[in-house]
Design a protein that fits this description.
This protein has 429 residues and is α+β, with helices and mostly antiparallel strands. The protein has two domains: 265 residues, Bira Bifunctional Protein, Domain 2 (BirA Bifunctional Protein, domain 2, 2-Layer Sandwich), CATH 3.30.930; 96 residues, 3-Layer(aba) Sandwich (Rossmann fold). It is 41% helix and 21% strand. It has 16 helices and 16 strands. The protein has an eight-stranded mixed beta sheet with strand order 1-5-6-11-10-9-7-8, with helices on both faces. A five-stranded mixed beta sheet has the order 13-12-14-15-16, with helices on both faces. Strand 9 and strand 10 form a beta hairpin. The chain is elongated. The structure holds zinc ion (2 copies).
Length: 429
């Protein structure tokens, strides 16, 4: 029982803000490298956004629904300004777009970013108080081609990770013209059926009827299957927009499922909404939508935009459940063994020489004995070690040791970089 509790604390951290640990660095690096590669291929520009956002920006971003703002946003004072830890990236993207006049840099602006997001939720295995996202956003265009570009970028991202059975669902949230009519139908349909749905759904009906579309309870699914669907209520231009997006995705040979239940609960999101899932995970790995009304609501500026985010922790978990090892391979390393205090200084100089020439060097020159150093090198699976003692410093040589065979050879310091590179390359073949 005690062990279980301990594991729980280690896993979630006391505040459900777990650290990404060195043992998982292969996954983290691979996700970031993949994001970077996709952003380059698809021409998204890297943007680094502050983890603090002005509180009133978030306040406006929630529109009339202030419950999430009060419950889930971490607020704090930053100087005299009321600020909040980043709740989501897109408000900050829009704020930066306006503040820094990024329209002069590119229009539409395509950005890529990564970093932590903070939400004061009741944590569980899938919902943390701090989690990480990698995202792509396009600011300044209503054209469905950009919805398509964003979806394709995410698809390529998951494909590059070699994830299997990727499920892409695409829906529509309509617009100010057509969404209202569907909402009305939905309310009429459910009003007399609240006794047939689960308790949370019955409660949610008055708060936001769109919440009932995503409930997974069996009885709610059964009620929903007879209900109205938004595809039947889309206005002509929303319908055309959706059709164009689906055609773009199809043209690129990407399988998708149109999903009538995928409708945003926020009035500030419109038209395209999409998610990427894998069967092993109960929640989407990536989610995105169009949000043409958001900038108007926050900044009183009509700036259309579309984009989405990958959940880093969830994607790593999906890779683990599919037994996909991270392909991010670190450089082959050499281990520098040092004997005696006299050799330390010379060792540091030689290590630096190697590092400047692009060779990764591991050392443990502290107080460890030679035996302990060799053990560590063996545990790390390192195949090439360099050995430096007082005699070698005096002679201007280094001993080169093949770790598996134990064969040693003395080489001149001048030939060090050349010899090490030659052997590392041979080892790699
Ligand atoms: Zn519409
Ligand atoms: Zn329900």
């Amino acid at each position: 029982m005690k062990t279980k509790q301990k594991n729980h604390e280690v896993l979630w951290g006391l505040e459900a803000m777990p650290d990404g640990l060195p043992k998982a660095q292969g996954y983290w690096r691979q996700l970031h490298e993949t994001g970077k590669a996709i952003s380059e291929l698809h021409d998204f520009n890297l943007i680094n956004l502050s983890a603090l956002e002005k509180y009133d920006i978030l306040e406006n971003a929630f529109g009339s629904d202030k419950s999430i703002l009060e419950d889930e946003v971490f607020s704090l004072k930053a100087g005299k300004v009321k600020a909040a830890l980043r709740f989501s990236f897109r408000e900050s993207v829009l704020r930066s777009f306006i503040d820094n006049k990024l329209a002069y840099f590119a229009y539409p602006l395509k950005v890529f970013y990564s970093g932590p997001v903070f939400r004061d939720v009741v944590p569980d295995e899938y919902f943390l108080r701090q989690f990480h996202q990698i995202g792509f956003q396009v600011v300044g265009e209503t054209d469905p081609i950009y919805d398509g570009e964003v979806i394709i970028a995410f698809y390529d991202f998951f494909k590059s990770l070699k994830l299997n059975n990727i499920i892409l669902k695409i829906g529509s949230s309509g617009c100010h013209t057509c969404r209202g009519a569907f909402k009305h139908k939905l309310q009429n349909y459910y009003r007399n059926k609240l006794k047939d749905v689960c308790k949370p759904c019955a409660r949610n009906f008055d708060i936001n009827p769109f919440l009932l579309l995503s409930c997974d309870h069996e009885e709610c699914r059964a009620v929903r299957s007879e209900g109205p669907i938004i595809f039947d209520y889309l206005c002509q231009s929303c319908n055309n927009h959706l059709k164009s997006v689906l055609e773009l995705v199809e043209d690129n040979g990407i399988a998708y499922e149109p999903d009538a239940n995928l409708v945003s609960t926020s009035e500030l999101n419109n038209r395209t909404i999409f998610e990427f899932r894998t069967p092993e995970m109960p929640h989407p790995l990536a989610f995105g939508c169009r949000y043409d009304y958001l900038a108007e609501e926050i900044f009183k500026r009509p700036i259309p935009a579309v984009g989405g985010n990958v959940g880093v922790e969830r994607t790593i978990e999906a890779m683990k459940r599919q037994n996909i090892e991270p392909r991010f391979k670190s450089k082959p390393k050499v281990f520098f063994l040092v004997i005696g205090d006299q050799a330390k200084k010379g060792a540091l100089r030689l290590m630096n020489k190697l590092r400047l020439s692009g060779v990764a060097v591991v050392e443990m020159v502290g107080k460890k004995t030679l035996k302990a150093q060799i053990k560590t090198a063996e545990r790390m699976g390192i195949r090439l070690a360099l050995l430096l003692g007082q005699k070698e410093v005096f002679d201007g040589t280094v001993i080169l040791r093949e770790m598996t065979s134990g064969i040693q050879e003395t080489i001149l310091v001048d030939k060090l970089v050349e010899e090490v590179k030659k052997r590392l390359n041979n080892n790699n073949d």
